[in-house]
Amino acid sequence: MYSKQFIIPFSLLLSLPIIFFLFIAPHVFPSPPAESLIPISDEISDQTLFSSAAASSTSLSHLSSASPKLKIAFLFLTNSDLHFAPIWDRFFSSHPKSLYNVYVHADPFVNITRLQKGSVFANAFIANAKRTARASPTLISATRRLLATAFLDDPANTYFAVLSQYCVPLHSFTYVYASLFESPTFDKSSDPDPSPGGVRVIFRTFIELISDEPRLWKRYNARGRYAMLPEVPFDKFRVGSQFFVMTRRHALLTIKDRVLWRKFKLPCYRSDACYPEEHYFPTLLNMKDPEGCTGYTLTQVNWTGTVKGHPYTYRPKEVGPGLIKRLRRSRHSSSYLFARKFTPDCLKPLLAIADSVIFRD
């Protein structure tokens, strides 16, 4: 028989793994928040939607330049009230619905005020919205849901502009539409488009594909050093704003993706470097069709004075003609088309200069 002096230390040794996993591991390797994980039921629902959208792509996955009534699908992601709905309503007013559609993904776990009849947002809320959480793959899912819904809803939706409830327009609808579909010189990153007949021939996605972000390596390893391999090598990994303007062709490519989604939905273990919504779309398009992207976004954002990953937020006293003119300036295009982030009480001063400044191009 073994003596007690050996049994007790041996038992303690065997118990060490149990102690580690029960009491130490949760602090060293904390579990991701429950709200950041994708429920199986949501996955099944999404795949049904995505499959329907992909199956419909044979009808019109990309409209030719000769197709009439090309539309912009405005896709709003929100987890709060649409504070700037009045200025957006003014943006769309007097323009025919044959030129645009509006869709809203609102977190169903948040009490959000629905807009009254007469607003473009009144019937824009999509029925299959799910819970969302910042810095989680739920925002990827929500954006893909919007893309698929808009793709299925109207084959004339040619551009898909992803926006948040804190975004505001910097120009009139006429200017935005002409910049995307008609102007041969709006995109400074490419050669002038000859645009016969007043309609652009080549449509490109306006999205950032940043490869020199200082913390890119940490972002890449947020799920573990080898978690993204082999599907996503580090030299293909990109970062960029989650607010972009995507072509119909790229919307279909995003809806059909399964391979990269399986990687980007994995939980992160570095919360300070985990922003899947800023990684998935740039990486996917960089790997699939970088030449079809401009490499920049049309939504202006100020990252000076950032707080906990949030951009600078403009307040009412800052709103004026000078701010709008500064926000429009772009090195990559004739102008930025949208801007964020504004506090809700900026609505009044923005409306005050809407007709005289914002919508006067």
Short description:
It is a single-pass type II membrane protein. The protein has 361 residues and is of the alpha/beta class.
Element order: H for helix, E for strand: HHHEHEHEEHEHEHHHEEHEHH
Q: Any idea what the radius of gyration is?
A: 23 Å
Strand content: 5-15%
User: Span between N and C termini?
Assistant: 93 Å
Subcellular location: Membrane
Main location: membrane
Membrane topology: Single-pass type II membrane protein
Keywords: Glycoprotein, Glycosyltransferase, Membrane, Transferase
Structure description:
This protein is an alpha/beta fold. The protein has helices at residues 4-28, 40-55, 57-60, 85-92, 138-153, 173-181, 216-220, 248-256, 259-264, 276-288, 321-328, 347-352, 354-358, and strands at 71-78, 100-106, 157-164, 168-169, 205-208, 245-247, 293-295, 299-301, 338-340. Strand 8 (299-301), helix 11 and strand 9 (338-340) form a beta-alpha-beta unit. Helix 2 packs parallel to helix 5 and helix 5 (138-153) packs across helix 8. The protein is globular, with a radius of gyration of 23 Å. This is Glycosyltransferase BC10-like. It comes from Raphanus sativus. Keywords: Glycoprotein, Glycosyltransferase, Membrane, Transferase.
